[in-house]
């Protein structure tokens, strides 16, 4: 089982969280011209590589906050967690 | 090639089975091939077989990082079906069903195809309506579908929970009587043996490191066993698709996720069919050895680990026990995991790419095994003719740009949600 350190609540079991996908995906800015390709990249296309992966999780059965987690998709090791508003460095 | 028959079995029994031919060779890679298939799983082996058989292209190599049949074709729950609503999925899968029906004779290898029927259980009136609609769509496409009421389901699977006061009572179900199971390893080995006998080189323990591309054309691959030139290259690597796509500077509508399966200790025959739970994601069948073969949800986060995590297994088996309470008495024999190429609409991609001579076969989600023959057949056609067949025209990569999605379950792009 994964143990995820919620930046608000501390270390909790995976059972309390729900997954939200790749955190590096950015929605194209409103009011700007974007190409179909930009939009496709946002909606559909994903790198999904083996190794370090920044992803969104929601502490659904806890503080209900969305958080960012850096996890290895091969070993499942978790390196770092951030609050949703904190930028990935 | 030695033909397998009852006579060859008796003959070899007399010499203590010491004189059987090797089922396939272990060749050194040549410098150049007409076609290189990357990935020695079910789909890759089937593609090579149909390239040789249907298109007379035999200067073919299959490049496999590990050993053939060691990935998802050896890790699935062996279910074969064509119970789809959309025409593209239904016609493609039913074409595959016809290949399954004659596969053992075609390959001279017993794949133990067992059309035992699949029942999708319904737990509400609304779900019965949805199943009636899907069943009608299937029948319009020439696929057998029977809508069962509660009593009819009870007659077929009396061991399911038919009590009145359960959270998800069984209202009925949709059955495809011609669906079933097959011996998964035999499918890989049968295709490998026939492909090898027609001249295909099966090269194992050979990892693809990079691609040689010039002027928008594929020229060959760099591997851990040297460079191999090829006019055409087909990618058939399921859960590793994104890793190879990165080497090609492609980003695909695919995420790699972990899916678990498990078997119980063997018990006496109790379940004749494949049964799926309608209020969650759980399916079950009984193997010829008596084990209950079960599976369900993805682990729920991007993963390349070919092993599972317990919370998902517990969740899936809770559904199983809700459906068939006797399962709680069984001991678990084995659990395992494989990595799935989850596409953004739940349907696969079999298509050409923007690189000339490079072909893509991926996005099989939960349903790769049953598609093995149809996938191999259509991918071989796409590679040999350099154009898609009408059976896989709907499985284009471009559909994500044009909006012609094949989202059978209406789930959208959250591939990890079932």
Describe the sheet with the most strands of chain B.
Answer: 8 strands, mixed
Give the strand order, joined by hyphens, for the main sheet of chain A: 3-4-5-6
Shape by Cα distribution of chain A: globular
How many strands in all of chain A?
6
Mean residue pLDDT of chain B: 97
- Count of domain modules of chain A: 1
CATH class of chain A: Alpha Beta
Order of helices and strands of chain B: HEHEEHHEHEHEEHEEEEHEEEEHEEEHH
Quickly count the helices of chain B.
Answer: 11
> How widely separated are the two ends of chain B?
45 Å
Structure commentary:
The complex is a heterodimer of chains A (89) and B (418). Chain A is mainly beta and 89 residues long. Chain A has a single domain (1-24, 51-89), classed as Folate-binding fold, CATH 3.30.2270. In chain A, 9% of the residues lie in helices and 37% in strands. A four-stranded antiparallel beta sheet of chain A has the order 3-4-5-6, with no helix packed on it. In chain A, strands 1-2 form a two-stranded antiparallel ribbon. With 418 residues, chain B is an alpha/beta fold. Chain B is built from eleven helices and 18 strands. Chain B has helices at 6-14, 42-55, 87-101, 103-107, 125-140, 150-156, 184-197, 241-247, 310-323, 372-385, 399-402, and strands at 32-38, 60-63, 79-80, 118-122, 146-149, 172-176, 180-181, 201-203, 208-214, 217-223, 226-235, 254-264, 274-277, 282-286, 292-302, 332-343, 349-352, 358-362. In chain B, helix 2 (42-55) runs parallel beside helix 7, helix 2 (42-55) packs across helix 10 (372-385) and helix 3 packs across helix 10 (372-385). Chain B is globular, with a radius of gyration of 22 Å. The chains are: A mainly beta (89), B alpha/beta (418). The interface between A and B is medium-sized, with 27 and 24 residues.
């Amino acid at each position: 089982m994964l143990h995820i350190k919620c930046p608000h609540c501390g270390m909790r079991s995976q059972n309390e969280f729900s997954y939200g996908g790749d955190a590096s995906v950015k929605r194209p800015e409103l009011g700007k011209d974007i190409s179909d390709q930009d939009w496709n990249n946002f909606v559909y296309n994903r790198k999904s590589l083996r190794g370090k992966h920044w992803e969104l999780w929601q502490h659904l059965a806890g503080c209900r906050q969305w958080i960012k987690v850096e996890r290895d998709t091969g070993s499942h090791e978790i390196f770092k967690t951030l609050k949703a508003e904190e930028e990935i460095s | 090639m030695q033909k397998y028959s009852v006579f060859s079995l008796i003959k070899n029994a007399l010499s203590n089975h010491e004189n059987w031919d090797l089922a396939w060779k272990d060749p050194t890679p040549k410098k150049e091939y007409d076609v290189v298939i990357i990935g020695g799983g079910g789909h890759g082996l089937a593609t090579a077989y149909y390239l040789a058989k249907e298109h007379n292209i035999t200067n073919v190599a299959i490049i496999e990082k590990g050993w053939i049949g060691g990935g998802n074709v050896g890790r699935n729950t062996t279910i074969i079906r064509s119970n789809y609503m959309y025409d593209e999925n239904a016609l493609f899968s039913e074409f595959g069903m016809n290949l399954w029906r004659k596969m053992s004779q075609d390959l001279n290898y017993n794949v133990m195809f067992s059309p035992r029927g699949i029942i999708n259980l319904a737990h509400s009136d609304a779900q019965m309506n949805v199943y009636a609609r899907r069943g009608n769509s299937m029948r319009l496409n020439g696929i057998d579908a029977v809508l069962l009421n509660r009593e009819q389901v009870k007659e077929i699977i009396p061991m399911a929970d038919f009590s009145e006061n359960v959270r998800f009572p069984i209202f009925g179900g949709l059955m495809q009587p011609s669906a079933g199971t097959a011996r998964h390893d035999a499918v890989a080995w049968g295709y490998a043996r026939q492909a090898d006998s027609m001249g295909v080189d099966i090269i194992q323990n050979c990892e693809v490191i990079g691609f040689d591309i010039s002027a928008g054309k594929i020229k060959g691959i760099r591997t851990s066993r040297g460079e191999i030139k090829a006019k055409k290259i087909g990618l058939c690597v399921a859960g590793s698709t994104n890793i190879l796509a990165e080497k090609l500077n492609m980003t695909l509508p695919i995420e790699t996720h972990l899916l678990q399966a498990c078997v119980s200790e063997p018990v006496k025959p109790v379940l004749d069919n494949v049964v799926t739970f309608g209020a969650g994601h759980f399916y079950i069948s009984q193997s010829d050895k008596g084990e209950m073969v079960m599976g369900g949800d993805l682990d729920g986060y991007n993963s390349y680990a070919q092993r599972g995590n317990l919370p998902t297994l517990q969740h899936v088996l809770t559904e199983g026990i809700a459906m068939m309470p006797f399962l709680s008495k069984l001991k678990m024999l084995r659990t395992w995991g494989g990595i799935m190429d989850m596409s953004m609409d739940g349907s696969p991609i079999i298509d050409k790419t923007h690189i000339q001579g490079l072909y893509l076969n991926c996005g099989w989600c939960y349903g790769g095994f049953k598609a093995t023959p149809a996938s191999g057949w259509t991918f071989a056609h796409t590679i040999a003719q350099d154009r898609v067949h009408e059976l896989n025209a709907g499985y284009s990569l471009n559909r994500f740009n044009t909006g012609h999605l094949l989202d059978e379950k209406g789930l959208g792009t959250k591939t990890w949600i079932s």
